[in-house]
Specification:
By secondary structure, this protein is α/β, with parallel strands linked by helices. It has one domain: 4-Layer Sandwich (Metallo-beta-lactamase, Chain A). The chain is built from 8 helices and 18 strands.
């Protein structure tokens, strides 16, 4: 599978990998953030920081997942200033209710009149608390799937994590904590058959092998930050022992000082793996 970084021309991912391993940066390869990439029959991923992505599908649909943008420290500045700069969104996916994942999803759903798909016991309190209109929330759960557009199928899969909504009650002016069910990951199958496994936040669990064997994702988006999720060593253990995917992209690091895992540590821990590491910098776009 070939993939390219986009910005006023094309730079190979190999160059970015080399720069990363040499301690350099890839800031010169950041994607344009003033308008969405044009769908050209490929899959395009824009990293919004932490676990957030904008996915342009081969068929021209736009999916946003876990958009922690206005408060996200590494989100692209253009989007932080104006959420509409993301372009027209067709659907939203949220893995769980923690603020760095739920983020701006309700606001984006209302802005785009787009349905927010998520774990059943997260979507329900979003609606009952008045954070999301009922017609813009779709509840589903682990091993359940949705087919919102022709050729697109999203299956909820297990994740080993928690979920909580913190809601500032306008009646009292005080924050409240509301249970929000269980966290999930997603297998996102696109119109050309390309499959992405967005793990969300998760620790190690043995059924990662089952999930890979059942769905055979091409690209795995795996958290490496530690503290709240797997650290680089645990993430590499999962990839080397249970998930022999073609490609793996580390996420959920570099945005929270408590999540100290680094790309360099993950690269070191992955030595001996046949999976290709696909590094990104926040704000970049990758085309598959």
């Amino acid at each position: 599978m070939k993939f390219k970084f986009l910005k006023n021309g094309l730079c190979t991912a190999l160059a970015v990998t080399a720069m990363t391993l040499l301690g350099g940066t890839a800031s010169n390869l950041q994607a344009q953030t003033d308008k969405p990439a044009v769908a050209t029959g490929k899959t395009e991923l824009l990293w919004l920081g932490q676990a957030g992505f904008r996915i342009q599908t081969p068929g021209g649909k736009t999916i946003v997942i876990d958009p922690w943008i206005t408060a996200g420290p590494k989100a692209p500045a253009a989007f932080k200033a104006d959420l509409s700069a993301l372009g027209k969104l067709d659907m939203l996916l949220v893995t769980h209710a923690h603020v760095d994942h739920l983020g701006d999803a309700p606001a984006l759903a209302k802005l785009n009149n787009a349905v927010l798909y998520g774990p059943a016991d997260m979507v329900t309190p979003l609606i009952t608390l008045g954070l999301l209109p009922a017609n813009l929330g779709h509840r589903f759960n682990k091993t359940g799937n949705v087919k919102p557009y022709p050729g697109i199928k999203v299956t909820a899969v297990a994740a080993e994590h928690s979920s909580l909504i913190v809601f500032n009650n306008p009646a009292t002016g005080k924050p409240e904590s509301h249970p929000a069910g269980e966290a999930v990951g997603y297998i996102i199958e696109l119109e050309n058959g390309f499959k992405i496994w967005h793990m969300g936040d998760t620790g190690l669990f043995g059924d990662m092998k089952f999930i890979y064997d059942r769905y055979k994702p091409d690209l795995v988006l795996i958290p490496i930050g530690g503290n709240f999720t797997m650290d680089p060593e645990d993430a590499a253990y999962a990839m080397k022992n249970w998930i022999p995917a073609k490609m793996v992209m580390p996420i959920h690091y570099n945005s929270n000082p408590l999540a100290k895992g680094t790309l360099a540590e993950f690269v070191e821990a992955m030595k001996g793996s046949k999976s290709q590491i696909v590094p990104m910098t926040e704000g970049q776009t990758l085309a598959f």
